[in-house]
């Protein structure tokens, strides 16, 4: 008998076929309490689940007594209660490597778009405002040779450092839990404390997971330490930044601009003051959202679930202690 799994994300046909060749798959739209209630029998039998951003916590786990593995189509897993999963010996699998380059591209795009005001001036062209030769009210600021500060030197931080160093000749500062020799050797990145990074960087780029330690790590106090000419980029998780404090800093002009792919609440509420600011580039959490990368993430998540339930896990497990 094939193990039963719940799929709560749409998969490309070939990947769905691969999943179905190993498992009895119940396809659902989400993991909302209503969906769980309506499909109680399927959840009671499920040994695996595969999806992405839905919350998986203690309450959810009371409905899945046979669950052995959860596979998320993402690198971030802050929506999973890892301690609760681990206590029940449920393996949590994620997709860390396949999206690195794409997310780093997104971050570099935000650096360029905010510095050169790409979105704002493109909108002015569309509005018919380009009537003669352009003056300083269309100008941006340079990116090349400016100092880039990276918070969190994981895979994505490293790929961003590579782009900034080789592509834009940018001196790089970074702050992370530990020194990263490769970043220092290959990209000349200099480790420094958070306050120094904030004070010296022209661009502060956040590439951190959301944890208890990183929640609101950038608040009013930290924003005040940044140069008033500096730009904040966040493509990690929204709640790493205190959004109210960010809005205030932008409104007061103590921060030059912000490029944001993630927000405290997603989708970003349409009445957010951020949407009224020309110096804010707000993206709809597209960090990894290319056809190629989203396919590779989904394929990785499928393989992760197959490994966790029917084979041998060699990589991508967040809590490998449950496997022994
Ligand atoms: C995915 C992400 O957005 O991998 C992550 O952690 O934030 C994104 O790349 C998202 O979770 C949808 O699958």
TrEMBL record:
The active site is at residues 237, 266, 285. It is an enzyme of class 1 (oxidoreductase). It is found in: Cytoplasm. The keyword Protein biosynthesis does not apply. InterPro entries: D-isomer_2-hydroxyacid_DH, D-isomer_2_OHA_DH_cat_dom, D-isomer_DH_CS, D-isomer_DH_NAD-bd, Glyo/OHPyrv_Rdtase_B, NAD(P)-bd_dom_sf. Its EC number is 1.1.1.79, 1.1.1.81. Pfam families: 2-Hacid_dh (PF00389), 2-Hacid_dh_C (PF02826). It comes from the Bacteria. Residues 5-319 form the D-isomer specific 2-hydroxyacid dehydrogenase catalytic domain. It catalyses: (R)-glycerate + NADP(+) = 3-hydroxypyruvate + NADPH + H(+); (R)-glycerate + NAD(+) = 3-hydroxypyruvate + NADH + H(+); glycolate + NADP(+) = glyoxylate + NADPH + H(+). Keywords: Cytoplasm, NAD, NADP, Oxidoreductase. Residues 108-287 form the D-isomer specific 2-hydroxyacid dehydrogenase NAD-binding domain. Its main location: cytoplasm. Catalyzes the NADPH-dependent reduction of glyoxylate and hydroxypyruvate into glycolate and glycerate, respectively. Homodimer. Belongs to the D-isomer specific 2-hydroxyacid dehydrogenase family. GhrB subfamily. This is Glyoxylate/hydroxypyruvate reductase B.
